[in-house]
Every structure is written in structure tokens, then in C-alpha cells.
Amino acid sequence: MIEVEALHKRFGGQVALDEVHFSVPRGEIFGFVGPNGAGKTTTIRILATLTAPDAGTATIGGVPVADDPYGVRELIGYMPDFFGVYDRLTALEYLEFYAACHAVPHRRRRSVALELLELVDLGERINDQVDTLSRGMKQRLCLARALVHDPLVLLLDEPASGLDPRARIEMRELIRELRRMGKTILVSSHILPELEELCTWVGFIDRGRMVAAGPMSDVRNRVLAGRRLRVELVDADDVKLYAARDQVADRAGVIEAELVEGCLEIAVEDDFADQDLLLDLVQAGVAVRSFAPVTGDLAEAFMRLTAPAPEEKAEEAGE
Amino acid sequence: MNAVERLARLFDNPLIVKDGVSRMRSWRAPVILTVYLALLGAFGYTVFVLAAISSPSQRTGSAMIGATVFEALALMQVSLVALFAPALTAGAISGERERQTFDVLLVSRMTAVEIVWGKLVASVAFMLLLILAALPLFAAVFLFGGIDFEQFVITQLLTVTTAVSIGAVSLFLSAAFRRTLASTVVGYGVAFAGMVGTLVAGALFTLALVVHSSTDLAISTSDVHPLLFANPFYSMFVALNDPNGAAMHLGRLVQLLFFVSSPRNDLGPGLEPWQATVLVQLVLVALSVFGAVQLVQNRRAPMPLRAPEPLEVAGVPVETGGGGL
């Protein structure tokens, strides 16, 4: 649905994008991950027809972004990382205005706006002026605004930035719901645990270069061997922990077992049967308090992929 | 599609509705309207009292008072419109940028022409409301006599075109500058140059022509420098005081604009000052709108006109995988 090939972009002497390439199949949620200044927003602005690349191609639904921007604008809903709202307009009027901007027929504007306000859980606030809404509500309203013309693709640049935990969860659920509605979604963020729970595909960008892109499990597996499990013991001490580690270390399917922060962390192959390992530990008399998969694999993968090369480290140390 | 439908379609622009609703809900709209009418009314009343005191007789005085008050009101109105126009228009596009809503507007299906047109109409509509709201004042003065209907129409037309032209120039500045403050300051500068600068410079140049007319036979005493012809104050003054005696040929105006006095070029139609002013203002509107459309268009990703230069990183050309855009 989204195809990006060899995108280059310079701002003055600064290379913002260097050979950026990735693709997003229809119906997937693509997490676009990178630190601030890595090139996420520039890439999204190119896809949104707001910035012209110096070289490379980008297509959305097969429509070239540079050659047919009007065609692309019908396919995309864009939510920038900053958002502005108009004063003295109600939420309903705000959406009706953007529906008109997207040439939604007169007779359908009111119903579209009302449906979207319900979707983003602002059905009770239709007559509230938008500048009086909370930040989370404004974010949801902006997402609704990106949907007024029922686009196939959503480009969401840091949609959860600045939101409190509850608002972030609501935004996440909303994005999941949109995927269920058949939208293809590109969402950028630097909050990795959130993306890990949300996205089906992922792309890492660092200093303008794509370092990895593909299905979430592929990217993670490419970088990290297997999954990780964390075992916490009752009254854990070194003796108990080492004993537990020895118990599992040689088991088939276990890649690695190590002690991390008073817990036992075990790297296992993807098809490993976790429940058998737990059973073995309990039968061996190990007092297990908790047994759970380690989240944050994406963060680990990202850190490994974007770590400076040894020679770069040496250069930095030399400086 | 008939003419009415076409006209309706022209004004079926979401920005006109949105900006109109948003503006009329703010406290500023009624305040500006009240201040405008209060200033105009107070000024008109003061002139009326002064004219009534100095009137020689009640019979002939009625028309004289009417003409004097009407002229003062018309000049005051065009001054106030020139004062309000930059403030009402200079933030039209830069305000969208400052509010961080401009990009979203650009990603919509609205074309650059529709955006600029919507912004212009929304801004000018409020100025037209001001002019319309003052009509009863003029109508009251009209009853005194001394002003014919044509003069009334010309003054109102000049006021409207002045509002639209300053609005259009300010809109262009709003597209050119990132900050509303900058576009407003420059907008006032341009309005001042157009309203006062052309009057002073035109008067000085005309004085120079008069001085030279004693030695240069090609210069007649009726020659006026074209800068005065572009000035709404002068045009309005002439329309109200000397409606039939100030026309100049277009060829002569162009000639004098470049300080060429002889041989006389009386080609082209004869233009009265108000016609020349309206013409100049319409040209300004067209140029400003065209410029604003270009600026808004370029804010979007422009269509590349040529293949991009090869990218170099650290002095080494980089092969691009995809085709150049």
C-alpha cells in the first residue's frame, strides 16, 4: 500500500534522508521508529505531499506522490506531530469544515462528522468549542479530522506525544479499531513499548537511514535471538538463582540463561513451550513467584541496530 | 450550470464560512464595527455642526452642508477602511501557519486558488460589512442634497476597491511572511504608501509640472502626475468637486509617469481619476492574488521541473535506487 524507495532529502548541507526505503502492505500498522531528528517527520511529510524529495520514489496505493499529489491526498489522512485547532468553532463545525475541504458532499457532512465524533468518543462534546477540549480530546479530534474523507491510509506523526497514560491507551485502542476497519496505518513514535504492542510491521530509521524494516517478528528475530522470559523467585538469592539457571540452561530450545537484576532471564527459541519450562522448574522445587515474557524486545532491537559501530565509538572516544 | 449556480459555487468555499463564523463569534467583530461607526458618526456630526454654523443661508446652505458632510464622511470612511484592512487581512495565511493548521489545509483537496480566494473573500467580507453598515449615515446626509447619485456610487465604489486592494496586498504579504506581525507591519507600510505616499509624491510631482509648464509648452496646466490618479483620496475629491474636468488620456498618464512631457501623447481612452484609481487597484488585486497563489502552491511539494542533481555525501556521488522524481 505504501512503497518508499531510495528517498533522499537534504536541507542545506544536512542530509535528512539517505536511501530510505520500506513498504507497508494493506491493512498493517507500520511503526516508524527513530530518535528525534532521525528523518521520520521528513519521510511522512514527503508521503503527505508537503515536501518534495530530492531523489527517490514514494507511492501510496500505486499513486506516485510526486506526480499525482491530488490523487494521493484522496488516499491519505494526515495527522502531523503538532496540531492546531481553530478558535470559536465547535467540534462538530470543525469536522464539517474539514469535510468540506475534502469535498465531502453537503448532505453527508453532518452525518460523517457525527459518526467520527462517536468513533473517537467525543459524541458528548459535539457542541464544545475545540479550544476548550483537553489535549487528549484534541488529539482524538485531530485523528477524526484525518478520517473525514474515509482515506485508505493514515499517516500519524507522533499521535500519542504529550498525552497522559489514559489518553495514550485510548489513542492506541482507537488506532487498533481503525485497523479493524481496514485502514493501513503508518505511525511514528519514539515510545517503543507502545509501538511494540500496537504495530504489526516496523521500520527503524536512524540519522536519515533505514536500519531495518519489515514484519515485527522478522525484524526482532533478525536482531535478537529468540524470545526472552523472565523468572522471579521467592526469596531469591544467588544460590537459588544459579541453581535455577543450571536447571534450565541445558534444556533444548533454551538459547541462553542469565541473571539480570535479581531475576533469571532466559532466551528461548520462538516455538519453545514456555509452560513445560515452568512445569520443570516447579517440579524441581524452584519457588517461582512470577514467570512472564519480557516486553521491550523492540527497544533492545532498536538499541542494537542503532548502536554506533566500534570505529565510531573509537572516534568519539578520541575526540 | 447557469450563472447563479456558478456564482454560488464560487462562494461555496469552506474557508469563507469558517473564517466568517469564527470572526463573527469573537468580541473583536462587534467592537470594530462599533468603533468604526462611532468614529464615522462623530466625525460626520462634527463636520455637520461646523458646516451649519458657517452656512450663509438655510436654503442654499442645505445642499452645501450636505456636500461638505458627505465629502468629509467619504474621505473619513476610506481612511478608516485603509486603517482596518491590513489588520483584518494580514493574518489570514500567516495565522494559519502560526496556528499550525496550514499543513492540514494543504493536504486537503482545496487548491491553492481556492485557499487564497476563500481567505480573500472572508477578509474582505467583513470590510464590506463595515461599508454596508455605514450606508445609513451616507443616506441621511444624501437627503440634504448637494450630491448626485453618480457621485454617491463612485465614492462607495472607490471605498470598496480600496478595501479589496489593500486586503489583497495584505493577503499576499500574509502568504509571504511567516509571522503575522511582520505581514501586518509591512501591510500598514504599503497601505500608507498607497494612501499618503502617492498623494504627497503625486502632489509634489504635479507642482513640478506646473512650474515647468511656463517653459515647456507641451505641459498644460491640467496635467497631473499619474501618482495622484492612483490615489483614492484625490480621485474621491475630484469626483465630488470637479466631476467633468479632470480626465487625462492613458498615453499621457504613462508618459508623465516616466517624466516624459513632450511631445504630448494623447493616445488611449480618456480616464477620470476615479477610473484610473479603480483600474490600478484592480491590477494590484490581480497581481497580489496571483502572487499569493504561487506562494501557497510552492508551500506544497512542488512539481519538479527537472531531474534532481546527483546526491553527494561527503563529496561522493550516491547512486539512487529509484527513478528521480
Question: What is the gist of this entry?
Answer:
The complex is a heterodimer of chains A (319) and B (325). Chain A is of the alpha/beta class and 319 residues long. Helix content of chain A is 39%, strand content 28%.
Salient structural properties:
heterodimer; A: 319 residues; alpha/beta; Alpha-Beta Plaits; six-stranded mixed beta sheet; four-stranded antiparallel beta sheet; 12 helices; 14 strands; B: 325 residues; mainly alpha; two-stranded antiparallel ribbon; 14 helices; 70% helix; globular; disordered C terminus
Describe the structure.
Chain A is of the alpha/beta class. Chain A folds into two domains: 2-220, P-loop containing nucleotide triphosphate hydrolases (Rossmann fold, 3-Layer(aba) Sandwich), CATH 3.40.50; 224-301, Alpha-Beta Plaits (2-Layer Sandwich), CATH 3.30.70. Chain A contains twelve helices and 14 strands. In chain A, a hairpin with a 2-residue loop joins β9 and β10. In chain A, 45% of the residues are buried. Chain B is mostly helical and 325 residues long. Chain B has one domain (13-300). Helices cover 70% and strands 2% of the residues of chain B. Chain B has 14 helices and four strands. In chain B, α12 runs antiparallel to α14. The longest helix of chain B is centred in the middle third of the chain and has 33 residues, at 180-212. At the A-B interface, β1, β2, β4, α2 and α3 of A face α2 and α6 of B.
CATH superfamily of the largest domain in chain A: P-loop containing nucleotide triphosphate hydrolases
> What is the number of domains of chain B?
1
Mean pLDDT of chain A: 83
Low-confidence parts of chain B lasting 5 or more residues at pLDDT below 50?
Answer: 302-325
Which two chains touch over the largest interface? Answer: A-B, 49 and 34 residues
Instruction: Tell me the number of structural domains of chain A.
Output: 2
Could you tell me the radius of gyration of chain B in angstroms? Answer: 24 Å
Which CATH top level class of the largest domain in chain A fits? Alpha Beta
Strands of chain A, total number: 14
Q: Into which percentage range does the β-strand content of chain A fall?
A: 25-35%
The CATH architecture of the largest domain in chain A is 3-Layer(aba) Sandwich
Oligomeric description of these chains: heterodimer
Question: Strand content of the residues of chain B, in percent?
Answer: under 5%
Regions with little confidence, pLDDT below 50 for 5+ residues of chain A = none
What is the global morphology of chain B? globular
Which structural category fits the helices and strands of chain B?
mainly alpha
